[in-house]
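Fill in residues.
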C-alpha cells in the first residue's frame, strides 16, 4: 500500500490576509515521501472588499508540486529521473528572472535548485507570475469565502480566535448599548 501524505503548511508567501489579497501556502509532507507543494489562493476580482463582493463569489486555488530542479551540463531540469531533459520553462529563464527582478539568471536558477521548499516556492511563484497558474494546474479548485477562510486559518489559527473576539466585542457593545437605552 502506498503511504499517503500528511501535509503540513510551513509558510505563507502571500499577503498577511490571504483571503482578501491572496495567499501562497507552502506544504511539506510530514512522512517525507512526497515533494513539497505550493497552493495559490486567488480572491475573486469583482469589488475591492468583502462587503462589495457579489453573493456566490468564488476563490480560485491552484496547487502543484515544487519539483526540485537540477543544473548539470548546462541543462536546468525539473525531472530527477531524466536530468538531461530541460524543464519546460528553462528556455525562458532569462526573461522570467528579469521579470522577477533578479540581477542574473544564475541567481534565479539557484533558487529552483535549492533544497529549501520555501526558497523553491519563491522561484515557482515568480514563474507562475510570468506564465500564469494554469501552466501548473489546469484544473483549479473553486472555494466559497467560508472555505477560503478555513484554508487560511490552517496557517493562521489565531485568525479564528480574532474573528470570535471581534464578533464578541461587536455584539457585547450592542447589547450594552441596548440595555442602557431601556
Amino acid at each position: 500500500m502506498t503511504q499517503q501524505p500528511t501535509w503540513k503548511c510551513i509558510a505563507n508567501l502571500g499577503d498577511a490576509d490571504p483571503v482578501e489579497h491572496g495567499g501562497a501556502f507552502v506544504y511539506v509532507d510530514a512522512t517525507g515521501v512526497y515533494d513539497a507543494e505550493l497552493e495559490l489562493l486567488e480572491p475573486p476580482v469583482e469589488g475591492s472588499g468583502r462587503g462589495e463582493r457579489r453573493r456566490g463569489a468564488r476563490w480560485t486555488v491552484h496547487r502543484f508540486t515544487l519539483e526540485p530542479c537540477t543544473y548539470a551540463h548546462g541543462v536546468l531540469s525539473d525531472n530527477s529521473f531524466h536530468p538531461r531533459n530541460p524543464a519546460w520553462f528553462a528556455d525562458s529563464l532569462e526573461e522570467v528572472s528579469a521579470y522577477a527582478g533578479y540581477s542574473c539568471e544564475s541567481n534565479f536558477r539557484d533558487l529552483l535548485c535549492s533544497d529549501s521548499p520555501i526558497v523553491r516556492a519563491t522561484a515557482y511563484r515568480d514563474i507562475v507570475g510570468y506564465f500564469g497558474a494554469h501552466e501548473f494546474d489546469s484544473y483549479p479548485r473553486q472555494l466559497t469565502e467560508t472555505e477560503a477562510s478555513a484554508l487560511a486559518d490552517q496557517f493562521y489559527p489565531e485568525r479564528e480566535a480574532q474573528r470570535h473576539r471581534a464578533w464578541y466585542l461587536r455584539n457585547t457593545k450592542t447589547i450594552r448599548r441596548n440595555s442602557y437605552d431601556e
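The longest strand covers residues 23-29.
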